[in-house]
Amino acid sequence: KCGHVAIIGAPNAGKSTLVNALVGQKVAIVSPKAQTTRTRMLGVALQGETQIILVDTPGIFAAQRRLDRAMVAAAWDGAGDADLIALIVDGRAGAGPKVEKILQSLKDRPERKWLVLNKVDIAAKEKLLSLTSKITDICAFEEIYYISATTGDGLEEFKHALANAM
Ligand code: GDP
Ligand code: MG
């Protein structure tokens, strides 16, 4: 089996860190600086017989400059080819205007949608729960995962679920 998963989210949510962790080797550049991922990057994660093709995208945000707009367009293009869209949200930073904007665009899309709250290693549990209800009030998700892309917390379960969804 084989399927495409688009990893979308605001800049710095941890999308590239997650793709690298799932693939098990470095394919995307991780940086504390926003917008390090400038175009779509592909990584392949193997889970048993299943290939999960991960599309790491530039962060989606309200772009003003032309290059920025092109990056945001590339991110949504990546989502268009996908069997499933995983929205990564920084569990500590929460859902500001950038995340709300993504949710508004996401809610009318036909693809399957999963929510992944990242950085559970540095986010308070109560915050994660209120964030989850804030997000799901705007857009419904088929599944919700709590992970840390850096410590690996919750990643095995997430990867298994992805493989089963392909
Ligand atoms: P992207 O812009 O969404 O691709 O985000 P990156 O993957 O480049 O990560 C942005 C920053 O968040 C980097 O400094 C990462 O090390 C950090 N980061 C990513 N995931 C986690 C996590 O689960 N926990 C913590 N504490 N930091 C993380
Ligand atoms: Mg990135």
UniProtKB/TrEMBL annotation:
Residues 9-16 are annotated as: G1. One of its GO terms (molecular function) is small ribosomal subunit rRNA binding. The chain holds residues 4 to 169 of 297 of the full protein. It comes from Sphingorhabdus contaminans. Residues 56-59 are annotated as: G3. Monomer. One of its GO terms (cellular component) is cytosol. Residues 35-39 are annotated as: G2. One of its GO terms (biological process) is ribosomal small subunit assembly. This is GTPase Era. It is found in: Cytoplasm; Cell membrane. Residues 147-149 are annotated as: G5. The keyword Cytoplasm applies. GTP binds at residues 9-16, 56-60, 118-121. Belongs to the TRAFAC class TrmE-Era-EngA-EngB-Septin-like GTPase superfamily. Era GTPase family. Keywords: Cell membrane, Cytoplasm, GTP-binding, Membrane, Nucleotide-binding, Ribosome biogenesis, RNA-binding, rRNA-binding. It is a peripheral membrane protein. Residues 118-121 are annotated as: G4. An essential GTPase that binds both GDP and GTP, with rapid nucleotide exchange. Plays a role in 16S rRNA processing and 30S ribosomal subunit biogenesis and possibly also in cell cycle regulation and energy metabolism. Residues 1-166 form the Era-type G domain.
